[in-house]
Amino acid sequence: MTADDVARLAHEPRVAEESNMGRRNRTLLLCCMVGAFWLWGAPLLAAGQPGAPQGKAPTPDGHFQVRTTTIDPDQGVSWEEAQLRYKGQGYPFVLQSQTNTTLDVLTNLTGEHINVDGLVFHLKNLPDFAGTYTRIAPEVARATWGSDSGAVFQNSQGVVVQVNKGPRSESLYRSLLGNSFQILLSDF
Predict the structure, then answer these.
(1) Torsion over CA of 121, 54, 164 and 88, rounded to 10 degrees?
(2) Beta strands 89-97 and 115-121: pairing type?
C-alpha cells in the first residue's frame, strides 16, 4: 500500500459522510419548500379559481318577507304583509320604497302580487331593524356574501338585509325596492 492509497482511503469516508449530509440538507430544504407551498401558496391559488369560496358568509340573525299589493301601473308599487322573524317571534313592519321599475314592466305585472324574502344580519336589538336601507355596492356584497348574494342593503345601525333570489330576475326585485327603502316598526 502506497502513501497515495492511504490518503485516498482516509479521504473516502469524509466524502461519503459529506455526500449523505448534503442529501439530508437537500431533502430537508425540499420538505420545507413543499410545506410552505401548502401553507401559503395553495390557498392563494384556490382563492383565485372560479367558484372557490371567498370566505364564510355571516350567520343570519333573522328572516323577512314582504309582499306587494296588487300591482297597478298607474299607482306604482306598494307593500303589504311585511314580517320579520327574529329570535323565534314574528314582527310586522311597514316597507316604503320608491320603485325604479319602468311603466312597461309594471304593466306586464298588472294584477300580480310579488313576494320578496331575505335574510337579516347584524341585528342585535329589534329597534335597530327600523331605518333607511341603502343598497351596498355589488362588489362589496359579493366579497362578503358570495357571488350569489343578490341585492344587499344596509341601514345606519349596521343592520344588513340580503334579498334572496326568487323565481323572478334579481333585477326585478332590485327595481321594485329601488336603491333605498325605509322600514318602520310598530311599537312593541
Answers:
(1) -30
(2) unpaired
Assess contact for 111 and 67: CB atoms under 8 A.
no
Q: Could you write out the DSSP letters of every residue in 21-86? A: HHHHHHHHHHHHHHHHIIIIIHHHHHHTSTT---SPPPPPSEEEEEEE-S-BTTTB--EEEEEEEE
CA distance 43 to 104: 48
Q: Over the stretch 97-110, which tens digit does the pLDDT of each residue have?
A: 877 777 888 888 88
Weakly modelled stretches of the chain, pLDDT under 70: 1, 3-57, 145-149, 165-167, 169-170, 187-188
> Three cell numbers at 34?
413543499
Extract long-range pairs of 48-57: CB within 8 Å, 24+ residues apart. 53/146, 54/142, 54/143, 54/146, 54/147, 55/143, 55/144, 57/144, 57/145, 57/146, 57/149
SS3 state of residue 141: helix
Q: What is the pLDDT of residues 52-85, one digit of tens each?
A: 345 566 789 999 999 888 787 777 778 888 999 9
